[in-house]
Design a protein that fits this description.
Blueprint: E1 3-7, H1 13-25, E2 30-33, E3 47-53, H2 61-70, E4 79-87, H3 96-105, E5 109-110, E6 115-119, H4 130-146
This protein binds flavin mononucleotide (FMN).
């Protein structure tokens, strides 16, 4: 079983969160940029976490393209979760929910609710404590895998 945290980023904040998620997951999980990652290498039993900045109320073009490539039911047996990074606005749109729905449509087993992490401005930095919150969220995902609740 492998655990991959696929991310896209413009200013590095989503990479920082992806790296925290990988460290919280443990067990050799790796944070990997979405460009160049071959989703054909995913196998039943693997864990896939996908993270994107919100860009114009949706995931980035590279994440959207990767999700479109997955095709229907390509991820059967793969466990998956999604997060986004966003600014704290009254209306900010959503990327993690859209990613979650695409992963589900591709056949993945979804672990928990889509998660949001916050930056102070478009270029960051992350709001205080968000990297730690990401690691704790990931540790929760790993625990639910370990005790068979997903
Ligand atoms: C072109 C563009 C569009 C954006 N649109 C949104 C948006 O719709 N909602 C939101 O909350 N943040 C939006 N943001 C802020 C990004 O979410 C923020 O830049 C991102 O979280 C930073 O992550 P990164 O450092 O990984 O690129 C936008 C940023 C850019 C550059």
């Amino acid at each position: 079983m492998k655990a991959v945290v696929l991310y896209d980023t413009a200013y590095g904040n989503t990479r920082t969160i992806a790296e925290s998620v990988a460290s919280g997951l443990g067990q050799g999980a790796a944070a990997v940029p979405v460009e160049g990652f071959d989703t054909e290498t995913l196998r039943p039993g693997d864990l896939l976490v996908v993270g994107s900045p919100i860009n114009g109320w949706k995931p980035t073009a590279r994440i959207t393209e990767m999700l479109a490539d997955l095709g229907r039911r390509r991820l059967t047996g793969v466990k998956a979760a999604a997060f986004d990074t966003r600014v704290k606005l009254f209306i900010h749109g959503d990327a993690a929910g859209k990613i979650t729905r695409a992963l589900e449509a591709a056949g993945a087993g979804i672990m928990g609710e889509p998660m949001a992490f916050y930056v102070k401005g478009s270029e960051g930095p992350l709001m205080d404590g968000e990297a730690e919150r990401a690691a704790a969220w990931a540790a929760g995902l790993a625990a639910s895998l370990g005790n068979g609740t997903v």
